[in-house]
Amino acid sequence: MVITQIKKIGRGERYSIFIDGVFNCVLEAEIIVKNRLKSGMEIIDERLVEIKLENGNISCFERALSTLERGAKTEKQIRDYLLSKGFLEKSVESAILKLKEYGYVDDEAYAENYIKTYSKVKGKNRLKKELLLKGISSNIISYKLNELFDKEEEYKNCETICQKYLKGKEKNLKTKQKAFNHLLNKGFGFDVVKNVVGKCFLEVEDESWD
Known about the structure:
Elements (H helix, E strand, L loop, with lengths): L2 E7 L4 E6 L2 E7 H6 L10 H24 L6 H10 L4 H14 L4 H12 L5 H10 L4 H11 L2 H16 L6 H13 L4 H11 L10
Antiparallel strand pairs: 1-2, 2-3
Helix pairs in contact: 2-4, 3-4, 5-7, 6-7, 8-9, 8-10, 9-10
């Protein structure tokens, strides 16, 4: 096989590679220079496959950096995104390893920041569920929740949300049940919600959720 043309794409640093007069692949300028590729050069199929994989690793890593510029991501989110873009699994794992080495992807730091950001409006159960969906391990979640949360703080946050929900509403059994469900949906524990709602509805008798 012979490289018959190396054609620059737009204003970037990527080039179309033609083998025996037919388009074959797109390579980064860094890969072309490193492997000393040029028109008229003979190349065997096995070597071309190696170069494509090396190029894929670089492209994959750069795509990962690009999406991280828009906001922090978990390891799972980055992996799913890169695989959805068609990158080989080997390239994806190589990119993630490098991201973790550089500290660009850190599930523990992500979990800590997420909990600190949303702890005043969401309970432990809700936070745990959302972090699990983002791919954070249950061990990291439990560790961070125990480290950053305490029962008194959770109770105060639940009470604040309850009072905000009840603003302008008539205090009756129907509202009481809705407030109870609202706080459960926010992820607060059953006992915490029961105590908070009971405090806010001292004048409304109903023990239907005992």
